[in-house]
Amino acid sequence: PIVCAAPWRPLSSATWFAGFRQRRDNKRPVTGTLWAQYALYNRLANETLYAACADLSEAERRRDLGAFFRSVHGTLNHLLLGDRIWMTRFEGGSHPSTDLGAVLHEQFEALRAARREMDGRIETFFAALPPGFLSRALRYVNNSGFDSDDPVEVILPHFFNHQTHHRAQIHTMLSQLGRDPPVLDLHRVLRPDPRP
After folding, report:
1. Alpha helices for 95-143 (secondary structure H)
2. pTM tops 0.85, yes or no
3. Cα distance between residue 33 and residue 126, in whole Å
């Protein structure tokens, strides 16, 4: 199995962009840089979203607003579960099929801590992809019980798009709850101040 042994350290957007500029200026091809950027964006967007959700009451976080996973709380749990499933597969393991609406953490602060840990795991993995990872395929049994074999080049866009898709649902639910949702556009999360 592929194991990511490096300890997690948050990578600031300034650090990432400094490295990007150096690689660009040196005109060296970079493998996996886009995925590391998405991993950084994922962490920063989640931090921003969780900060907004922390201002909700417990009743507001659990209110059924008609979303696929019903509430802010249900959707945050689903996002964590989806990431847990895919990261386990990326790291060479298998994850049992589970109810995709499972509540992994009842308490918001426990859910937030687990999210931070998962985002660190994602960022560490994509900062130093295992050799050959981008050209391999993943074989797994999906949650419907189907044996699947998908190339990583298809799964990685799905992985990051899935996160964005459900963050957008939470963004909408914040509006439904009468709150101002935060800016989550990738370019403004990574570069809050675009001035030269």
Report:
1. 108-127
2. no
3. 8
